[in-house]
Amino acid sequence: MPRAAALLTTTALVAWCGHGVAGEAATADPAPARQQQLVRMVRQDCGSCHGMRLTGGLGPALTREALADRPLVSVAATIFHGRPGTPMPPWRAMLNEREAEWIAQRLLAGFPEEAAKASP
Ligand code: HEC
Question: Into how many domains does the chain fold?
Answer without folding.
Answer: 1
